[in-house]
Amino acid sequence: MAIFTDPIKEHADFAPGDAEWLHLLVGDWQLVADLAFADLALWFPLPDGSYVALAHARPSTSHTVFHSDFVGERIRGDLQPLVDAAWKSQSIERSSETNWTTDTAMRVEAIPFVRNGRTLAVVTSHMDLSSSRMPSRLELTYRQCAYDLLRMGTLGLWPDFATPTGSRRGAPRVGDGLIRLDAQGVVQYASPNGVSAFRRLGDMESLEGRPLAEITTALLKDRRMVDETLPLVVTGRMPWRTEIESRGVSLSLRAIPLRDEKERFGALVLCRDVSELRRREMELVSKDATIREIHHRVKNNLQTVAALLRMQSRRMESEEGKLGLAQAMRRVSTIALVHETLSQGLTQNVDFDELIDRQFRLSAEVASPAQGVRTERQGTFGELPSDFATPLALVINELVTNAVEHGLSGREGGTVWLSAERRRAEDVEETLVVTISDDGVGLPAGPRSEGLGLQIVRTLVQSELAGTIAWSPRPGGGTQVTIEMGLEGARRR
Question: What GO molecular functions are on record for this protein (predicted)?
Answer without folding.
Answer: kinase activity
